[in-house]
Amino acid sequence: MCWCSSSSTWCQPMSRSGPSMNPSSDIPAISTIFRMADHGTPRERPAVGAARVAVILAGVKTEDAQAEDPRAEDANTVLFHTDGRTGVVTLNRPKALNALTHAMVIRIDEALAAWADDPAVQQVLIRGAGERGLCAGGDIRAIHDDAKAGNTASADFWRDEYRLNARIARYPKPYVALMDGITMGGGVGVSAHGSVRIVTERSRVAMPETGIGFVPDVGGTYLLGRAPGELGTHLALTGTAVGAADALLCGLADHFVPADRLPELTAALAGAPAHEVLPRYAATPGPGELADRRGWIDHCYAPATVEEIVERLLGQGEPAAKEAAETILAKSPTALKVTLAALRRAVALGPLERVLVQEFRVSCNALTAPDLVEGIRAQVVDKDRAPRWSPATLAEVSGADVEAFFAPLGEDRELRPL
Questions:
Q1: Which residue from 237, 307, 344 is spatially nearest to 22, judged by alpha carbons?
Q2: pLDDT digits over 379-404, tens only?
Q3: 107-112 long-range contacts, Cβ below 8 Å, gap at least 24?
Q4: Which helix (H) or strand (E) element contains residue 206?
Q5: pTM for this one?
């Protein structure tokens, strides 16, 4: 995102044309939309709901997440300390795969604001507790309950979360993210906007929202829209999780460090800046999968409609392409079409902050559409893994249906500067 334009793995966005490229004209044409609250101003923390935690990735088992009762949430869900001249953020909900809550987002934002002005803090490090990952996303069970009840808690959460993403993207000090293990959804939002993004052989990075009837957010359409060729389109529509080599290829990470060397790396950061420390630990990851598939991915995902993309995938004659088509056809038809439109528009919108305005509109409008509630029901609540999408097919999703997700929310509800 506009966080790490210096990344050596970054590629320039491909030029596109056609009506789906046109961004909303009423999104402000300025490079920085968000001005954060005064660093010293306390903010009221949201009440934590009674819903059990569920991660945003449908493919990740949620039994462990559900074992932790968020009603017991306290300050220990995210920990802060300084280690030498490094401010350390530890997401501390290992049983819930370090899933983010609204309270955690606010606490992280407050800490980053304070450290930005603290001369004793030279850089920031974010990591996840436990062995399974940095962060698997957010509390989608709470979103399900909120959407069913017609409440605004989800919009309030996203407002603060997206502002945090913007802060990370333009943070004035090195922001080092250890993307070890599962890093998905909201986990991408608190890591892939940083200036130093580290993956390991255990990393699994994804934006899997189409599987629950949702659309990539937290700046995900910004990131994926700028991946080389059509790799981002492939990842967004299929929700595929990638390893270290492919995360580097797609511009989602900057460096590979073997997992068993992370403790040494973390200790070294206490005494020296990241740019001095990393050369001693960075290595070359094993081979990925996407580089060898660029030919058919770039060809098959170039069309302007999801229907054409699926048709090309099925006609490609590659087993992996056929598998991608079948994966796509299992997702929400509406979410797929909105995701493709959001990706194309994100490239034209430019700066991350403008893309986050668009994502906030899409996310809030998704709360009143049927597929988000149904997707979470099928994957997390009832766990029958048999969502009944509405509409049920791509052909039934009209252009008007898609445009409704991009509609302005009204002056008092838009994502605005603080």
A1: 344
A2: 999 999 999 999 999 999 999 999 99
A3: 107/45, 107/75, 107/78, 107/80, 108/78, 108/164, 108/190, 109/36, 109/160, 109/163, 109/164, 109/167, 110/42, 110/43, 111/80, 111/87, 112/164, 112/167, 112/168, 112/171
A4: strand 204-206
A5: 0.84
The SS3 call for residue 356 is helix
**Buried-exposed string 177-196: b where 16+ CB fall within 10 A, e elsewhere:** bbbbbbbbbbbbbbbbbbbb
Contacts of 270 (CB under 8 A, 6+ apart): 83, 84, 85, 86
Amino acid identity of 288?
G
Sequence-separated (6 or more) residues with CB below 8 Å from residue 44: none
Look at residues 371, 367, 390, 391 and name the one whose alpha carbon lies nearest to residue 379.
Answer: 371
SS3 for 16?
Answer: coil
Residue that the structure tokens 């940095």 belong to: 134
Q: At what angle do helices 319-329 and 306-315 cross, to 10 degrees?
A: 150
Identify the three-state secondary structure at position 340: helix
**In Å, what is the CA distance from 294 to each residue of 10, 204, 227, 232, 234?**
16, 20, 12, 11, 10
Token readout for 397 is 């999703």
Residue corresponding to tokens 């966080």: 3
DSSP string, 210-272: GGGT----TTHHHHHHTSSTTHHHHHHHH---B-HHHHHHTTS-SEE--GGGHHHHHHHHTTS
Which are the catalytic amino acids? 138, 186, 209, 217
pLDDT digits (tens, 9 = 90+) for 332-348: 999 999 999 999 999 99
